[in-house]
Design a protein that fits this description.
- The structure holds 2 protein chains of 2 kinds.
- Chain A has a domain of 220 residues.
- In chain A, 73% of the residues lie in helices and 2% in strands.
- Chain A is built from 19 helices and 2 strands.
- A two-stranded antiparallel sheet of chain A has the order 1-2.
- The longest helix of chain A is centred in the C-terminal third of the chain and has 32 residues.
- By secondary structure, chain B is mainly α.
- Chain B folds into 4 domains: 223 residues, no CATH class; 297 residues, no CATH class; 47 residues; 71 residues, no CATH class.
- In chain B, 76% of the residues lie in helices and 1% in strands.
- A two-stranded antiparallel sheet of chain B has the order 1-2.
- The chains are: A mainly alpha, B mainly alpha.
- At the A-B interface, helix 12, helix 16 and helix 17 of A face helix 5, helix 6 and helix 23 of B.
Chain lengths: 497, 733
């Protein structure tokens, strides 16, 4: 029964997308209703599935070797990731309807776009519910394949270039991850995700350094999707995709899949006890801390709004990886917090940027002067999400930052404390790159000529504002009362669920 | 209204109410101002009621708002908080009265008022905070909301100032957060009440205090920036000058005190009895007051002078905080090592009390004085339309109310006897002098302290000198306003003709603030001492002083002489700097005689150091690194693509021959061409080697094929095989 439900939620979005190509709809409204309906159904089914709680490992197909099988499982981590994804997807779909009307070239491939957009939903759930490394690897590759057409959607020269880059980076990364998979097959007891790791220490013997090296390779391989420097270049470029894609995929689903895979790799395959205190941890920490500061610095320099947010994502993803690399349950709590909270904050700010594009055709920071008067709701929401991203206490960004710093200090390692310093510098830079937009919009200066702005610029319709509104509520509620969520994360990170 | 949380949250509630009212009513600038007066009045009553309940022994417990950001907000009440809570609400109330007319013709008043209320709530939250997180929470909030004050006028200059303000506030906030993390990790608590105990335990265990010092250093950046301590004061002059006058009054009177509150906490709770920290604070304090004083004297702008005056006075306060730390160290060291008998310990405690009371009173005095001065400046601005001293010149003539209030406030902050500044400055000065005497004695016993006698001597001298600078710049303003005449006769006439220069509400607002100035000064032991006793900060060691306060002889010759020195220094500085340097023709290359900024523009720390470093140098260097890293992977790909993975040249199927014959043929062709060119031979004709080789190649391969197909070749290969087998067999055997 549970397995049937799993297969349903993975395949339903895809099947729905296929049907979309076949059925002829009378008008746009019906079509949108249909799309929204099957996405929403899928979300509800996912909730039903998750409410059953953690399950045993379900083996589906066994390949030649005893260790190689295709299996599914729901544990705490799956619940967090699947919960996040399934909550955001219907909202993003709702947002995408009015957005796609404005998108250049939008009408032509709209059906194809929605096919891939919803198919990605199923694939991401597949990643979340994979029971072992092999299954996750397959879905991970599939994710690359189904998202490439989305990046390419506008079919401009830029978009084609960006999607090729995305494709190459992802496939290259997956190849490194594959090396990790092979070594896990050889040196592990099984491939199934087990809290604490599956490595067979007696078999490893004196090859510890080799395995650490493999871990670094696999980390960097999955790290391509999580945009660790120096594998980050695809992410800002992929911003040419329509905003629903950039917001949902390149701020949540795809990049968080990378982070999620790294969590699985670190805590459920290699095991944190094996890795803690080794050179591999320190080396990767250096990369990650550097990325935190680097992403923010680039965001400050970038003047294209969406690309700026993409650089910000690069930095924030490394917050998550920083939490992962602390290699304690506390660190994982911080990482999970930031995975979820950043998802909400970033999708919110991306949607605001998308609204600026559709309503006012604003792409660059310097064009936002004085816009707040014309689009009060969007900019109020954007301001709140900026504050949340900066980590102002009382909003959700602070909670995750607090837990990350707490974990780092608890470990007492100098490099990690330096990492906290990195977090704070990055918070400062975040303030600069987010607030510079806010301040421009609200305070264009006395000499600003209002008439330069077109009169028809206004807030978008409810389908775009409503999801944003929900996100703001989420940010505030989590910020004010984070205890239930954090308790849940703590039990996940402790391996109880 | 008995709990502190109500007092803190009331402005936030009011803010929503205010917004709803003013949204529905379109006319309401007047209504808005009235609501503001009402809201701040209620807040003042609430703060007073807290104090009333406390005085009657109904002390309130720590109030918790659980769960905010996972840590919860905590509020508490102590005397110090009570006094500053009341002072804060009072300051907001009088500025609301003042704003009634001042903001009448301004734009965006509703927005200004909303953020004004938010800032009030945040400031109350800071003073009533019971743990470091609550303090940080409201401190951040206050930084963001007060940004609107500085940016209010939206001119290019004010936006520039606001940018600096926000940048430093956020950087400071992050530094505080870092300090907070470290403190939480080291001390295991964020409650103010528990911090001292934990810190002392840590010291008794002899653990390394490096991290605590790092934490204090980080937090000092944030708190010191808000207070206006050197070298993080750079936002202060611009922001104070650009914000509207009531906002500047609040910035200077109240918001700077929140920074001092944080520094007090660091000094007495996080790093108690660490003299090194005290010495650091002492140096920062002395430098701040001297730099602020010097810039104040050299400025040619009314409001900027007052802004630097604020900075300088904060320097005095920081000096006091530094002395507290040094004395606390001295107290513990001498008590532990047994250098001192009980009488000496009692004396040290007395001096410690002077430092604490002096700091507290100077904070309070500065609050009142700056409220008066900035509101006066605002009132003048409404008529003159500028803060330039040349324009302001002569405005105060024949205006008795302005004369009295300004004189009292200016003389009060200048430390003239019988006014409030004299009392607090005397206390601070005495604590330095007595501490100097005490350590000179104990140095003979071999006790080692963080501060050397020389340092204390220099500090004392600079203290008196800075006091003189205060007198000098206040004299400058006074003479400009009341004694000199405007260079333009018509303007002077119009100034003289203004009788109704201040509406009643403004007069009330300023008048109320002036009252405490002579009151504290004339009756220090009756008025100042009980307030100071009640408002004991009760962080760390200061709790010792609860019932240990003595009357001081403020008007003894010894104490008066300090004030006298300052006044004489002030007169000399005024004569030389303002009269000869600024106004004298000799040094000025301008045509007109007048006041102008003496300080060279290229010494601007903010513009040429901070902005240059953070806006130009750092992004430039990081940019280069980032660009290299950004392109490294791509360029590897490109490099591979251009070399190893290069596409074959199209068309790659050759018409004849193969790749080798083609290459050899072509190169021989080229060699031949080269030979002809080098030897300058005529008559070059291509010999088409490539074709020839290709033909040869075909011949060769046809021969091979013939051989391959022949029987004899087969037999030959068979023989080769046999021979190899033989050799193998032989080799085995």
């Amino acid at each position: 029964m549970i397995f049937g439900l799993m297969l349903t939620v993975i395949l339903l979005p895809f099947a729905g997308g296929i049907l979309l190509q076949i059925i002829k709809f009378e008008n746009k409204r019906n079509k949108e209703c249909y799309i929204f309906l099957y996405v929403l159904t899928n979300t509800l089914l996912t909730y039903v599935l998750l409410s059953h709680g953690p399950t045993e490992l379900i083996r589906v197909i066994n390949f030649a070797g005893a260790k190689l099988d295709f299996s599914f499982k729901i544990d705490g981590m799956s619940m967090v990731f699947a919960g996040l994804v399934s909550t955001l997807w219907p909202l993003a779909t709702l947002y995408s309807f009015p957005y796609m009307e404005h998108e250049h070239n939008g009408r032509v491939h709209e059906n194809i776009f929605y096919l891939f957009y919803t198919a990605t939903y199923g694939v991401t759930l597949g990643i979340a519910m994979s029971g072992n490394m092999l299954t996750m690897y397959c879905f991970y590759e599939l994710l690359t394949l189904v998202t490439v057409p989305l990046v390419m959607h506008t079919l401009t020269r830029e978009a084609v270039h960006a999607s090729r880059k995305y494709f190459y980076y992802s496939l290259g990364g997956a190849a490194f991850a594959f090396i990790g998979l092979i070594f896990l097959v050889v040196y592990g007891d099984s491939l199934a995700f087990t809290y604490g790791g599956v490595l067979n220490l007696s078999q490893i013997g004196d090859k510890k350094n080799l395995l650490l090296f493999i871990y670094v390779l696999a980390f960097m391989g999955f790290g391509v999707k999580a945009a660790v420097c120096p594998f980050n270049a695809w992410l800002p470029q992929a911003g040419v995709a329509p905003t629903p894609v950039t917001a949902l995929l390149h701020a949540v689903a795809v990049v968080k899949s990378g982070a999620f895979a790294i969590m699985r790799l670190t805590y459920y395959s290699f095991g944190m006890d094996f890795l803690r205190g080794t050179w591999a941890q320190y080396l990767l920490l250096c990369f990650v801390i550097f990325t935190i500061v680097y992403g923010c610095s680039m965001a400050v320099k970038e003047t294209h709004v969406k690309r700026r947010l993409a650089f910000s994502t690069i930095s924030n993803l490394s917050y998550i990886l920083f939490g992962v690399l602390i290699m304690t349950p506390l660190g994982l709590v911080g990482a999970l917090c930031h995975m979820v909270f950043h998802g909400v904050m970033k999708i919110c700010s991306f949607f605001c940027a998308g609204a600026m594009i559709t309503q006012a055709h604003v792409n660059y920071v310097y064009e936002t002067d004085g816009l707040a008067r014309k689009m009060p709701k969007i900019f109020a929401i954007f301001t709140i999400s900026s504050f949340a991203l900066m980590g102002v206490p009382g909003l959700c960004g602070f909670v995750s930052k607090w837990h990350l710093a707490k974990a780092a200090f608890a470990s007492g390692n100098v490099l990690m404390i330096a990492g906290v310093g990195g977090l704070l510098i990055s918070a400062l830079l975040t303030a600069i790159y987010m607030l510079s937009i806010v301040i421009r919009a609200y305070f264009p200066g006395n000499d600003f000529d209002d008439t330069k702005l077109q009169n028809e610029i206004c807030d978008p319709d409810w389908r775009m504002v409503f999801p944003l509104f929900l996100f703001v509520i989420a940010m505030v509620v989590i910020g004010v009362n984070s205890a239930p969520l954090v308790n849940f994360f703590t039990s996940v990170a402790g391996g109880q669920i | 209204m008995r709990n502190t949380f109500g007092t803190v949250s009331f402005p936030f509630v009011m803010c929503v109410v205010f917004w709803l009212i003013c949204r529905s009513k379109s006319k309401g600038k007047k209504a808005a101002a009235l609501i503001m007066i009402f809201a701040t009045a209620v807040e003042l009553i609430a703060a007073l009621s807290l104090m009333y309940f406390d005085l009657h022994g109904m002390s309130s417990e720590i109030y918790e708002v659980a769960g905010v950001s996972g840590l919860g907000l905590h509020f508490m009440y102590t005397g110090f908080r009570g006094v500053f809570g009341v002072a804060t609400a009072f300051a907001w109330f009088v500025t609301a009265l003042f704003s009634y007319t001042f903001m009448k013709n301004d734009t965006n008043v509703i927005r200004y008022d909303i953020f004004n209320l938010l800032t009030l709530g945040a400031t109350m939250g800071i003073f009533y905070a019971a743990d470091l997180f609550t303090l940080f929470f409201f401190f951040e909030l206050m930084s963001f909301t007060s940004f609107l004050w500085v940016a209010h006028r939206q001119t290019r200059a004010s936006l520039y100032a606001a940018g600096t303000y926000l940048g430093i506030a956020i950087a400071g906030g992050m530094a505080i957060l870092m300090g907070l993390f470290i403190v939480y990790e080291r001390l295991g608590t964020l409650y103010f009440d528990e911090m001292y105990g934990h810190a002392v335990e840590l010291m008794e265990r002899g653990e390394n205090l490096g991290w605590l010092f790092a934490a204090a250093g980080c937090m000092f950046v944030g708190f010191g920036a808000k207070a206006g301590a050197f070298p993080v004061h750079v936002w202060l002059p611009d922001s104070y000058t650009e914000a509207p006058a009531p906002a500047t009054a609040l910035l200077s009177a109240v918001l700077s005190k929140t920074g001092v509150f944080g520094i007090l906490l660091l000094t007495l709770d996080v790093l108690p009895t660490q003299g090194g920290w005290g010495a650091f604070l002492l140096i920062v304090g002395v430098v701040t007051m001297a730099v602020g004083g010097i810039r104040g004297v050299m400025s040619g702008n009314f409001k900027t002078t007052l802004a630097y005056s604020s900075m300088s006075q904060i320097g005095f306060i920081l000096t006091g905080v530094g002395m507290q730390s040094l004395l606390a160290e001295f107290l513990t060291v001498s008590a532990n090592a047994g250098y001192a008998d009980t009488a000496e310990v009692a004396e040290i405690v007395t001096v410690f009390g002077m430092a604490i009371n002096g700091t507290f009173l100077h904070m309070l005095n500065h609050l009142f004085v700056k409220l008066v001065l900035f509101m006066t400046a605002g009132a003048i601005f409404t008529h003159v339309g500028s803060y330039d001293l040349n324009q302001v010149r002569g405005f105060g003539r024949k205006k008795p109310f302005l004369f009295v209030t300004f004189l009292l406030a200016a003389a009060g902050v200048g430390g003239i006897p019988l006014l409030n500044g004299y009392v607090s400055k005397t206390l601070l000065h005495e604590s330095i002098v007595e501490y100097g005497a005490l350590i000179a004695l104990s140095a003979a016993d071999g006790a080692v302290m963080a501060a050397t006698p020389v340092m204390i001597k220099v500090s004392e001298a600079l203290f008196l000198f800075s006091g003189g600078l205060t007198v000098a710049y206040m004299t400058k303003l006074f003479i400009v306003l009341f004694l000199e005449k405007n260079s333009d006769k018509k303007v002077q006439e119009s100034y003289d003709a203004k009788k109704n220069y201040m509406p009643v509400l403004t007069k009330v607002a300023i008048g109320v603030c002036v009252l405490p100035i002579p009151l504290i000064g004339i009756l220090p032991n009756l008025v100042a001492k009980p307030i100071a006793e009640y408002g004991l900060v009760q962080f760390g060691l200061s709790a010792l002083l609860e019932h240990h306060q003595e009357n001081m002889h403020y008007y003894s010759m010894e104490n008066l002489s300090g004030a006298l020195i300052s006044i004489v220094v002030g007169a000399i500085v005024y004569l030389f700097v303002v009269r000869f340097w600024m106004l004298g023709r000799r040094f000025s290359n301008k045509h007109e005689k007048g006041y102008y900024e003496l300080f060279p523009a290229w010494l601007n720390l903010e513009k040429y150091v901070y902005r240059a470093v953070f806006y130009r140098a750092v992004p430039f260097v990081l940019g280069i690194i980032a660009r290299i890293l950004d392109s490294i992977l791509d360029s590897i790909v490109v490099l591979l693509r251009k070399t190893v993975y290069r596409d074959r040249a199209l068309p790659y199927e050759l018409p004849e021959g193969n790749y080798i014959t083609h290459t050899i043929g072509l190169s021989m062709e080229r060699v031949r061409l080269l030979y002809y060119t080098v030897m300058r031979k005529e008559g070059y004709a291509p010999k088409n080697y490539a074709h020839k080789f290709a033909m040869k190649n075909i011949d060769l391969f046809e021969n091979f094929r013939i051989i391959e197909r022949s029987l004899s070749f087969g037999l030959f290969m068979f023989c080769v095989g046999l021979v190899l087998t033989m050799i193998y067999l032989l080799a085995i055997n």
